[in-house]
Write a structure and sequence with these properties.
Helix content is 15%, strand content 35%. The chain is an alpha+beta fold and 802 residues long. A hairpin with a 5-residue loop joins β8 (117-122) and β9 (128-134). The chain starts with a helix and ends with a helix.
Length: 802
């Protein structure tokens, strides 16, 4: 009997060892670890008068121990239960204040230590800067006085920032924010005995729902959400806090341009179990600055009733906001098609306005022929209206005459047409301190800033003047070829004084003041140094190639330093990509990106492996293009094959890549792509799939840019799911997933089920769950281990492959 027990014990242990390879944290090669942990260059923020500049330093990655701190996952939020803030944040850990004219740093007195700052905001005239500082027990509000360089804590009660920062300057001395109404320690405890079962029902009303995570699941969750989301609105003038109204669950609060009214959106019960807090029932109301109700604008239902389809929406008012060009007028949009975009009507949306004292009837400002998106206000003569359709990838920009409601089309095109994108209109502050459209040349033209500037020569950002009469965009400045420089801010639109950010392959991004009128030498504001010495000498190229149907493709190719094709021969290759849908083949063929950008390396990058002797094709174009009257995804798998074959054949044909040693990888939708390529081709030696969705029936009401439901196109959902073809995945597949993924659709069970399926059919696969990681990874130890896992997989199945 003892021998039988011992035999069973050993058998159990052996089976467990095969099923689960438990491992402690590992680290990748030192060069890779150094690239990951390099201190990032500071963030840059400049005041409205360009006299002072604030540099913000951040630590690259917190420890996993920090991610493991307690949190509540409710209503689509992840809440730190000890300080009324969201968990898993990245903080600013250091400030440097620099005078622009002298480029000298000023020491700040009174900064909290340790510093965990966020929500940095300048006051209207740039004389003060506010920021929050988060501790283990609360969130405080501090103000930097530029004149004295003194930092002062101004709040009396700890802030509540669970539903967003909610912090704004009303004027140079007054801040508006929300504070907690009870100590966090008073949060309701979970009862051992529930009141009863958790119950949901639907009484015949359609409620298609996206696959949100971290939703309310029980009455106790409802109680917790109400406790942590409830706050008191206050205004703070020179350190004196004054309550406004009564505690509520504030989703949005904004001040009217004349500073006399507040536009408030408050959440109310019943809380939904199907959508996040941002889709809960709410009331929209105008109050005075003391919180007294002036006008209830709308009582909005839960977003559960939103119809499926990306251009469909609920038949309710939306987009409540202030007009920025007048004292106190609120605007909102309303569908004219009952929210169904396929309804045959001349106009699909109308935008209404109601001016103070908000007692009259709302006026119709204008109507749009597609879905209204936003208004950029200007003055009494001009505003800009944006509309479009996501399903058709269309966009339109029109000039609005606010007095007459007349719309005049200025630009109409495809969202994916990067070459013809005119840019975004430059804004300037008006007499109310609000940013509005800035016109130049006596009101005849707009300044348009295109921070990408895609062209056949690669991305070359530009600043242009758009003629409102001829509708022609004349470029007045463009980044020089061989560099990548864009306008970060227009400091003076009339004198054309710009703040630019310039970089090249060799030069770290730095900031400059440029004067297009005086044409004087650029003033360099920052002197950041290269944080990646290991990348010096690495070769970067923007390569172009064609797939078999003639569509032009591009990618960013990285080759090891000192690489000599004649001497070193063909290299093992890593292809890293993320598919995108296009309705136009011409748009899909456009060149995106620039070979002249300085290479910055995030945790998600595949560029680490160029230090390990691999050729890396990053941002490999994987367009999925509509053709012959079909939608892009109707031929998803076939187009993936063409894209992958084109990249491999091009680099193998040049003798750069070894066709028999190629890996493919991606994150999220790129992981979905990877599993599909391994299921349907024999092009690769290994696959790397991080945090993907592999069974599309788990996202039945649409995914990515596919708005057909599972019931509209069941065969499409089956064929696009690599899980359906798990029996064909014989190429070694490494699956990595954060065990706390918060992204809609990419539930961790996706990787678990695909792993089990591939394993069930004898495939070679490995599943790694990273503790406490969401969809985007943050923990230092986890990311180092992720790099180790990927490196070991690549070395075993690609670099050393026979």
């Amino acid at each position: 009997m003892k021998k039988l027990f011992l035999h069973l014990f050993l058998l159990t242990c052996t089976t467990a060892a095969i099923a689960q390879d438990a491992a402690s944290y590992q680290a990748p090669p030192q060069e890779m670890a150094d690239l990951l942990l390099a201190k990032p260059t500071p963030g840059v923020s400049i005041g409205s008068k360009a006299q002072w500049m604030l540099l913000s330093d951040r630590n690259p990655y917190p420890s996993v121990e920090e991610l493991a701190m307690p949190e509540y996952r409710i209503a689509g939020l992840r809440i730190n239960p000890e300080n009324y803030s969201l968990s898993r944040q990245t903080y600013i850990n250091g400030f440097t204040l620099i005078q622009v004219s002298t480029n000298k740093a000023t020491a700040l007195n009174g900064l909290p230590s340790p510093l965990f700052a966020g929500n940095v905001q300048w006051n209207p005239t740039g004389t003060k800067i506010s920021f929050t500082n988060t501790t283990g027990t609360g969130v405080d509000l501090y103000v930097i006085d530029i004149a004295t360089a003194q930092v002062t804590k101004v709040n009396k009660q700890p802030l509540n920032v669970v539903l967003g920062n909610g912090i704004s300057w009303i004027d140079n001395q007054t801040l508006l924010y929300q504070v907690a109404v009870q100590p966090a320690s008073a949060a309701p405890k979970k009862p051992l005995m529930p009141k009863g079962p958790t119950t949901q029902q639907n009484l015949g009303k359609a409620a298609p729902s996206a696959t949100y995570q971290d939703l309310i699941k029980s009455p106790y969750d409802e109680t917790l959400f109400e406790f942590f989301a409830t706050s008191q609105l206050v205004k703070n003038t020179n350190g004196v806090e004054t309550p406004i109204g009564k505690p509520a669950i504030y989703l949005n609060v904004s001040v009217s341009p004349d500073k006399n009214y507040l536009l408030q959106r408050k959440l109310r019960k019943p809380f939904s179990y199907l959508v996040s807090a941002y889709g809960f029932p709410s009331s929209v109301e105008i109050t005075d600055l003391n919180g007294k109700s002036v006008k209830v604008l709308a009582e909005l239902p839960s977003a559960e009733g939103r119809p499926s389809g990306y251009d469909n929406l609920q038949n309710i008012a939306r987009n409540f906001d202030w007009r920025d060009d007048v004292a106190a007028t609120v605007t909102w949009a309303q569908p004219l098609d009952s929210g169904l975009i396929k309804k045959d009507v001349e106009f699909h949306d109308a935008v209404f306005a109601l001016a103070a004292p908000f007692t009259g009837k709302a006026n119709t400002l204008f109507k749009t022929k597609t879905r209204f998106r936003s208004v950029i206000w200007g003055d009494e003569n001009i505003a800009l209206v944006q509309e479009g359709l996501r399903s058709k990838q269309s966009t339109k920009l029109s000039r609005l005459n606010p007095a007459t409601g007349k719309l005049e089309t200025l630009y109409e095109g495809n969202q994916t047409d990067a070459y013809n994108n005119p840019g975004f209109p430059v804004m300037a502050k008006n007499k109310y301190g609000r940013y509005v459209v800035k016109t130049v040349d006596n009101g005849k033209k707009l300044l348009m800033n295109n921070t990408t500037g895609s062209s056949a020569k690669g991305d070359l950002p530009f600043l242009a003047k758009f003629d409102l009469k001829t509708k022609k965009n004349d470029i007045i400045w463009r980044s020089a070829e061989g560099t990548y420089e864009f306008v970060a801010d227009v400091l003076d639109a009339d004198k054309l004084v710009l703040l630019t950010r310039k970089e090249s392959q060799q030069d770290v991004p730095n900031y400059y003041i440029k004067n297009l009128v005086l044409r004087i030498a650029d003033q360099k504001l920052t002197s950041f140094e290269n944080p990646y010495p290991a990348m010096v000498g690495v070769i970067k190229e923007k390569i172009s190639y064609k797939r078999s149907d003639g569509i032009d493709l591009t990618g960013d190719l990285y080759l090891p330093k000192g690489y000599d094709k004649a001497k070193d021969g063909a290299l093992p290759l890593i292809i890293w990509a993320y598919p995108r849908e296009f309705n136009s083949a011409a748009d899909a063929a456009q060149i995106r990106g620039s070979k002249h950008r300085f290479t910055t390396i995030s945790w998600a990058s595949p560029i680490y492996w160029v230090t390990q002797g691999y050729a890396v094709l990053d941002n490999a174009e994987m367009p999925i293009v509509a053709a012959n009257g079909k939608k892009p995804n109707d031929t998803f798998v076939d187009q993936l094959k063409m894209n992958a074959e084109a990249a491999i054949n091009n680099l193998a044909g040049q003798g750069i890549a070894d066709k028999n040693r190629v890996a493919v990888g991606g994150h999220s939708y790129g992981a979905f792509m990877t599993a599909n390529l391994l299921a349907h081709t024999n092009l690769f030696k290994a696959g790397l799939a991080r945090s993907g969705a592999y069974n599309r029936t788990l996202t039945p009401f649409g995914f990515q840019n596919e708005d057909r439901t599972y019931w509209d196109a069941p065969q499409l959902y089956f064929e696009m799911s690599p899980f359906s073809y798990a029996n064909k995945i014989k190429t070694p597949l490494l699956l990595i997933h954060g065990d706390s993924d918060d992204n809609p659709g990419t539930f961790p069970i996706n990787s678990e089920r695909l792993f089990n399926a591939v394993k069930g059919f004898g495939g070679t696969t490995r599943l790694v769950f990273l503790p406490y990681e969401a969809h985007s990874y943050k923990g230092k130890e986890n990311i180092l281990h992720m790099l180790w896992e990927m490196n070991a997989w690549l070395d075993t199945y690609v670099k050393k492959a026979k």
